[in-house]
Every structure is written in C-alpha cells, then in structure tokens.
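Input.
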Amino acid sequence: MPTIALHNLGCSKNTIDGERILHRFRSAGYTVIGAFAEADIIVVNTCAFIREAKEEAIEVILESAAWKKKGRCRELLVTGCFSERYKKEARALIPEVDAWVGVHEWEEVLATRLGGEAPPTFERELLQPIATQHVKIAEGCSHACAFCVIPHIRGPYRSRPQAEIIGEARWLEERGVRELILVAQDTSFYGKDRAGNGTLADLIEALLKSSGFPWIRLMYLHPDHVDNRLIELFASEARLCPYFDMPVQHAADNVLSAMGRLPLSAGIRERIAAIRAAVPAAAIRSSLIIGFPGERAKEFDELERFVEETRFDRLGVFPFSPEEGTRAYSLTGRPRSTTVMRRCEAIMAIQRDISREKLAGRVGSDLEVLIEGASPDRAFPFRGRTRFDAPEVDGAVFVAPGVCSPGSFRKIRIVNASDHDLFGEIA
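Output.
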C-alpha cells in the first residue's frame, strides 16, 4: 500500500485533527511513515492564527511540494486553518498542491477518497509521548474578541457530547495515557452552547468517576467563565492538576474593552484572588497581547504593574498581529513595532525574575514528576514535568541518573533551579 507522512503545524487542537487524519489513512491500509522523502502522499495540516503561523504554513507547503520532484511524493494534500482561510487564493499561487481541504471538509473528503467503514471518530494515530495526550472537548468559538480570527475559520462554539468525550478518554487510558489534557478554544465555555449536556465541572466529575488518569489538566480557560464551582472542584480533587491556564490578554480597561474582553481589570484580579484563596498551591499561567491599538505608555505602565503584582507562575507575551477579517484589523493607534518589541522584552524581564524566584523556592522539596524521556544533559539525562507545568509551553524538570522510564511517575528531590526549569534527583 502507499506510504503517507504528515507535517503537523499549530496548536494541540490541530495536532488531534492530524492524528485522526493519519489514523483514517492507516485504517484504509496505508503505511504511516515519518520520512517525507519516502512518502507517496504528504499531508500538511496548517495553522493560520497569526502572521507568523501563516508564513510557516507557506514555507512548509513549499518544502513539501519540493518532494514531488526530489522524492517519491505523487500527491500533496493541505488541510487545516490556512487551507480553510486561503484556499481560493492559494490554489492559484501554489499549483503543486493537489487538494486544499478546509477544516470542516476533511472527514467527508477522506470518506469519499478512502471508502470503507470509517473508524470511530475518537480513534487517532497517537504521537509521542504516549503518556500525555490531549482531548478536544469542543470545536470553534462564539466569542467576539476583536483580535481573533478563529471564529471566522472554525465557526461557532460546538461542545462535543459528554459521552463521546468519555469514550475517547477511556480509549486513551487503555493505551497507556497517564495525563489527560482537555482543550478547546475556550475550555471553560464547555456546555454553555448545548442544553442538557452539562458544564465543564460536570464533565470533569464524570471523567474522574469513569477513568483512572493520575493527572487531568485543563488548558485555555477564559477568565470570564471560571466560576466558583470549577474553582472548588480544583480545590477538592487531587487528580485534577492545580494548574490554571487563563489568558487575560491585558490589564488596562480601555484596551480590554477595545479587545472585547471581559472581565475588566478588577474582575481579573478578583478571579485570580479567588483561585489562590481556594487553591493555595495553584500554578497560574496567562498570556498577554502587547501593542494592541490604543495601548499608550499609560496603559503599558498599568500592565507592567499588574504583572509585578500578580506574579504569574508562567506567562506568554505576544506582539499584536493585525488579522484581516477581525474588528481590530482596521483600528488605528498602534504603537510602533520597535516600541512593541521593547515592551515585550520589558514584561518578559519582569516575569523572568518572578519565575526564577518562585522556582528557587522549590529547591529542597520533593515533587511528583511525570518522566517524558531523555535529556541531552549528561548530568541530568532525563526530562519530565510536575503537575504545575504543561507540555511544550512551560518549563521542565531535569533528573539526575537513576531508574526512570518514559510515562512513569517518580518522586524527585529538587536540587537546583534556573529561570524556567528545575533540576533534581530521585528522592
């Protein structure tokens, strides 16, 4: 049978789509490989959230098209957000692509192409490490954030049925998954669009009862939808990682209003205070957009003070990217790009000091660590994470020589810390 290789771009939600595409091909008898030079079919699953993602998508598509001349590739398929957003324009500009498939079309396209009985929708070609896997609990977004193009690409918010999510979780647990991560464009909005399906708290309680995952983690919580019941659930359930990934985007009220974001600054502070009061050990991760139209020196000073006072455990900082099709695209009053980069660096310098101090406070403590695999550091040849850190976006724990196997939990005594990582030995 023909061979197929996938180049997956973008977020964990996109990764899940790519895994399902690969599994559909494998179920039809294709051989899944990692070497693009040997692939008869190459699929590029793209992102188009911001300018850099679009540029990366174009670069990878062109690189993949080159394998039609120098490799075995006889067919190039492009799917994902870039394909959904630009397929009409791209079809003429990159004729080497044999099919541009939108985010809402690929299941139907593959069913027509491959025939036969499709596998259950939750089955996927799991990528490494197997121990940590994501489950998408909803698709699309119904919010009106002025800077975000996702509703235009993915459509309105659509919660998956609770029973379907639990079925996928059980399937993953049977395959050795130890950490289950729930994702959506806004995880905390789950169920609000679907009468009778239950809330996110209901879903978590059902997952805790029906599965034995040692860790369950939530990503992408909107601060306006993190309610008291959800916070109380974090406080009472030991298997629910005390980790709040809650993008606030800014702290100046006029900027938040222009972004279409709620709550405003006072509400954000109240929500964070409520989390820390109920879950003292909570790690709070957030993200900020710097340089949104209307951000003057006054608003940036307010943001700096907010970061200094809030002391996030983890923080991502991104320069504003004007995206066509969004309300913010035509707004005036944007700071100069050099000013934006200087402000990004200033915020990250503040956060670096906060992170260093917080991690230094963990030296001497014993932490449960999920071992992920090998590290290039000979003195600390294993790499893992605590329940306070998510994969890919946060720091790691580097572990000294000992008996460690990927997917196992080990108690690690922390002996040192850097700006973003911890170092330890088996306790």
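The chain has twelve helices and 18 strands.
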